[in-house]
């Protein structure tokens, strides 16, 4: 069971290379045409097409199965990770390494792709953000198509209504133990689900959420949720790099160019804590010497440790 998934962003997690092989078909093609290099392949992975029925778009899911999957009959917790082009191979490698070298339980890893026909920037800006920015639309990187945003609700419903049944039908997945992983805009998506349908996942790993988006709209949504609810049944691990701070001499605001992401996340986490929701468990960790680009593997590692069991 193999799939051809490019590993352009795998530099953050070299452990994933341990289980990689060269696809026989690609190798044969290389012999026939020496100028064609074979593709890099991840073992025990599959790619499946999935239609988002409500929002009428097409996506793919990438699935990585644990080493013991073929020789066991048990069901496995499932890690769902957005921004799959980068994050899926990283998550696969880290999950495998945590099992092999740290004794953590194995998990199925599911990567959620960008929409077919869309660029990464276009797809994630539309699908992961909770609102249409009051500051106006950014310039689109897709000619002839204005940048879209604010469709996180629809994308969250797509995950629950279309992706979950697909995974449950084809794999021995323990759908009572689902983990969401999102970074940056992906963190916003996780927060949107947290405040609308918190039981969508049993554990949320949210790295460096872009709380500055739309002048801090997620702070407003946190207050609105608190005003209407007495509980928030969720387990959440927040992580961020210590270098994601405001440059010296600048005044902090709810704007991207003046955002102090560490201060924003501390403020957000403290706001959640003040409500004393009986069903909410949160952890916030700030990783020294890391920035927005480098912190994701650490957030993922610590977030998985906070939920997966030791064997």
From TrEMBL:
Keyword Ligase: no
UniProt xrefs under InterPro entries: AB_hydrolase_fold (IPR029058), Esterase-like (IPR000801), Siderophore_Hydrolase_D (IPR052558)
GO molecular function ontology, one term from the record: hydrolase activity, acting on ester bonds
Transmembrane intervals: none
Residue segments, region Disordered: 126-147
Keywords, comma-separated and alphabetical: Hydrolase, Signal
Signal sequence range: 1-18
Sequence similarity: Belongs to the esterase D family.
Protein name: Alpha/beta hydrolase
Lineage, opening ranks: Bacteria, Pseudomonadati, Pseudomonadota, Betaproteobacteria, Burkholderiales
